[in-house]
Amino acid sequence: MKNNFLNLFTLITYLIGFVLIILSNIYKNIYLAKVAMGFYVLFGLILIFAFWLKK
Length: 55
Description:
- The chain has two helices and no strands.
- With 55 residues, the protein is mainly alpha-helical.
């Protein structure tokens, strides 16, 4: 995996999670909040994977 692809994938995952959190707060939707938290868990796993690749 190239570093640019990993950076882009991480940024897109973070932005999707951020937008879903904002939408869930606007519409008071618990399901959207759960999906957004799933995206943040995926974001964290990507960061751990990226750190592991650098070693």
